[in-house]
Give the backbone structure.
Amino acid sequence: MGGRASPSVLLDTELDDLPRELRWRVWMGRVEAVIFAAPKPVTREVLARVVGKGCNLEALIEDIRAELGDRPYELVAVAGGWQHRTRKDYADAIRVAAGVADRALELSKLETLVLTAIAYFQPATRRELGNLLGRDVSRDTLADLRAFGLIANGPKSPRAGAPNTYVTTVAFLSHFGLNSLQDLPERETIENAGVASPAGAERSNLDEVFGVSGETRDEQETLEEAEF
């Protein structure tokens, strides 16, 4: 029995028979199509499969972004990859058209404080989080953040008893529009916004600090049953 053909055999990635400009346009179309079809951010390694070896993916992405300049959606770098997202200005229109309530993630003040502490000091144990915040952090609070998909268990702490540590997730990066933890705002920005301070507002929303960019295609798929 013959083996299945490799995907690379079925797709001409180099396109040597095409003029340079046309080759670039075909690559742009392929990359945008792959990103559009994916429910999650698409990594550079995946996109490299559909373009030639000499293709500058970063330059290609910038050209796609430029063409989307007047569109209601954009291409963003998030969670280690690229993803199409509707622009923030259109979020309300999408919800109204679908007849659904605002699905923005709302965290209590304590949940926000704990999530912020984990983001900046991970991996951190429950005791370390309590020391940072000057208050006890309950297992229920951590369980809620885990249920939201924003945190996960990290490596065991080297401390006596090897307590669990907590880290943020790819979902955390995706929700807050971050490509990596290197994109976290300066701590001073967080403190000035009242998010990481006990004197902050009764309810805080990290979206306002991290600058979330609209709805993801993954989130929009939950609206499919609505009658437009």
